[in-house]
Design goal:
Low-confidence stretches: 1-17, 188-195, 404-408
Mean pLDDT: 85
CATH superfamily of the largest domain: Lamin Tail domain
CATH topology of the largest domain: Immunoglobulin-like
Oligomer: single chain
Largest sheet: 7 strands, mixed
Shape: flat
CATH architecture of the largest domain: Sandwich
Number of strands: 44
CATH class of the largest domain: Mainly Beta
Radius of gyration: 31 Å
């Protein structure tokens, strides 16, 4: 009788174990990440879908080598087995258990064996259809496969991951969500392409922009996600019309009709959106854009003798060119086309009215033209209308014209610091001196009728530029390296050069690095400066009226005057309601001797106001705690509210990283110091200060 009772109890425990085992799911597999031979990011994720914890002690794995020792998997929780823990955490910033072995790139069986040796679950994945395939980004394309259906072993219940940690490896965007909810959708068939029916995230630019025999994109309407470097200037003020190019010089247009992204050439971005075609030209209508602040090296242009589909959105150079008909250089409309020839081949270049070449005289003689390949063909089969878009004056080399500057002997060359010293009354020592000065334009003209701008040299020494009624005929473009012949002048404490003539030496030059300051004075005049962590003292000063307005800002210790001119985009915008870092050009307006007051900072555009925090909600903030603090490597986040994303800023307010929320944040790669972590959810923000040891 006792033996029967013990046997019954033993069978009952086995039944309980089996019932619990049915709640285990193999939830995600990264079997061939985008690395070169090492596959160090391979992992398997297991999910407990039940309402009770499962004791995994003694359970082992099929496909990789690992046996759990004294481990309990909580209800509705994940455990990740990674083949290289250090590499995994450096990319995904989440915990995992290191296992032995590797996953087959061609497919194999993975599974779970319980403590009594029963195989309770297997998944035999593959790299060919009906499993998600290489075309979807798997098998070395950057993406994991994630469970999103009903049957764990059915290929139809698996799809490609759609989101990831914003990390690029070998030109591929890593997509996967280990340790958190899956992002894949089984409702969309990733193998269906074109006409808005497919999801082509994971494809490269070259793979996603293939055309059919009519010149139409085969994946037209698909959702895509590309990483690339920004080239050229924005050809749609008030929106976005630029080009991104990958490391192989494959490019695509990026477009948004009404979102004015402030992008600069050399920035790396990740764009997500819909693959579109406009008059034969392939572009992404951008829904989401992530930018990386550090500038990157541009690719070398490809030398061409003609334009076609293979040059679209690539950086190319057409050599030894002359104008076929100089009368085509009209400087009219939204832009104009000009035919150029090398004697054997003829192509069309497009001069858009948003580039600095517009309004310049036609180049003469023989020159090379570098630019971005484009197309404008409004009828099928979309096999004509190819154009070359130079980005700025430096793309036409050499840019020779018959316009001659005044005699150099009447305007000796001086440096900016030489002519910007003042006497005891604050008046320039060089007042009335004729000279030639050279510098790079920072910002734009602060007048529609006159020319009022600033040039700055490589040491961040600047001077104002003025020309009445803009008789010099120069439209100020930020990044132009210009030589100015004129006379040193003076206006309400601000030293200027009153220009007689202006010559553009080159375009597209980078701005100097702003000096961080805590005071405005003579040393900051006409220099690019930055004031950290300020707020507006009195928001009612932000009037949006007149020729401009002054607003007092404070960093908590000092108060500064910020001038918003009516020619900058900030003039018609709402006042920032939270802390920000402010970049701008130092100015002065003091109409009485000794001209030692009235110092200002003038932001050039909206991007000069970098918000530190936004919509801080005390209830939301109080519901989030972080520990330990100070922290060495891993920061634990305890929250009773839903958090979507987090961002890490250094003590200067510069963004270090932004990612989807995880309850454990890996800070191992940060240097020791103070940081701010911003947690976001819908329209709510919380900021926590931490110290990294």
């Amino acid at each position: 009788m006792l033996k029967r009772l013990l046997f019954a109890l033993l069978m009952l425990s086995f039944t309980w174990l089996n019932a619990q085992d049915s709640n285990l799911i193999i939830n995600e597999i990264m079997y061939n990440p985008p690395e070169s031979g090492t596959d160090s990011l391979e992992y398997i994720e297991i999910y407990n879908s039940g309402t009770e914890a499962i004791d995994l002690t003694g359970y082992s794995m099929v496909g990789v080598e690992y046996t759990f020792a004294d481990y309990s998997l909580a209800a509705e929780s994940y455990v990740v087995l990674a083949v290289n823990l250090s590499a995994f955490q450096s990319v995904f910033n989440t915990d995992a258990i290191e296992c032995e072995g590797a996953l087959s790139n061609g497919g194999e069986t993975v599974g779970i064996v319980n403590a009594i040796g029963d195989t309770i679950l297997t998944v035999t994945y593959g790299s060919d259809a009906p499993w998600p395939t290489f075309d979807d980004g798997t098998d070395g394309g950057g993406a994991s496969i994630e469970f999103c259906g009903e049957d764990n072993s059915d290929p139809a219940s698996w799809s490609v991951a759609l989101e990831g940690p914003d990390v690029m490896i070998n030109g591929k965007l890593v997509l996967g969500s280990p340790g958190m909810a899956n992002t894949a959708s089984c409702e969309e068939d990733p193998n269906t392409g074109g006409n808005g029916e497919g999801n082509s995230i994971g494809l490269s630019i070259a793979e996603a922009t293939i055309i059919d025999s009519s010149g139409a994109l085969t994946l037209l309407g698909d959702t895509v996600q590309f990483s690339g470097i920004v080239y050229g200037v924005n050809l749609r003020p008030g929106g976005l019309q630029m080009t991104i190019i990958d490391n192989e010089n494959n490019g695509v247009g990026i477009f948004n009709g009404d979102t004015p992204y402030m992008l600069s050439e050399g920035e790396r971005v990740i764009v997500t959106g819909t693959l579109d075609q406009f008059n034969g030209y392939a572009q992404v209508v951008v829904d989401m854009l992530t930018r990386f602040s550090e500038p990157e090296t541009l690719v070398d242009p490809t030398i061409i003798t003609g334009l076609g589909e293979d040059t679209e959105s690539q950086l190319v150079t057409f050599e030894n060119a002359t104008l076929v008909d100089p009368s085509q250089w009209t400087n009219s409309g939204s832009g104009f086309n000009v035919d150029i020839t090398n004697g054997a081949d003829t192509i069309a270049i497009r001069i858009d009215n948003d580039v600095d070449i517009y309004n310049l005289p036609a180049p003469e003689g023989t020159f090379n033209v570098t630019g971005l390949g484009g197309q404008f063909d409004n009828s099928s089969p979309y096999d004509s209308g190819y154009q070359l878009f130079p980005r700025y004056m430096a793309d036409i080399d050499p840019y020779n014209t018959t316009v001659e500057p005044p005699m150099e002997s009447n305007y000796p060359q001086y440096t900016i610091p030489t002519v910007t010293t003042n006497n005891a009354e604050g008046i320039p020592d060089s007042l009335g001196v004729s000279c030639t000065l050279r510098g790079v334009v920072h910002g734009f003209s602060l007048s529609t009728s006159d020319l009022i701008c600033t040039i700055i040299d490589e040491n961040n020494e600047g001077i104002g530029v003025f020309n009445n009624d803009n008789l010099a005929g120069y439209e100020a473009v930020e990044g132009d390296d210009i030589s100015i012949q004129g006379t040193i002048g003076f206006f309400n404490g601000l030293t200027q050069i009153v220009a007689d003539s202006i010559t553009v030496n080159s375009s597209g030059n980078a701005a100097v690095t702003a000096d961080v300051v805590t005071a405005l004075d003579e040393t900051t005049e006409s220099s690019l400066i930055e004031i950290k962590n300020v707020t507006i003292v009195d928001p009612s000063q932000w009037t949006g009226s007149g020729g401009g307005f002054n607003v007092d800002i404070t960093d908590g210790v000092n108060t500064y005057a910020m001038r918003i001119d009516n020619e900058v985009d900030l003039f018609s915008m709402a006042a920032p309601t939270q802390s920000f870092n402010l970049t701008g050009i130092g100015g002065q307006f003091d109409n009485s001797e000794p001209h030692d007051s009235g110092y200002q900072i003038l932001p050039r555009y909206a991007a000069d106001i970098a918000l530190i925090s936004s919509n801080i909600d005390l209830d939301f903030s109080n519901a989030i705690t972080v520990s330990p603090n100070p922290v060495i490597n891993f920061l634990n986040v305890n929250a009773s509210v839903e958090i979507a994303n987090y961002a890490i800023f250094n003590a200067d307010g510069s963004l270090i990283k932004k990612s989807a929320f995880n309850s454990q944040i890996n800070l191992a790669e940060l240097n020791a110091g103070m940081y701010y972590i911003q947690f976001e959810s819908n329209d709510k923000i919380a900021i926590k200060k931490i110290v990294k040891l």
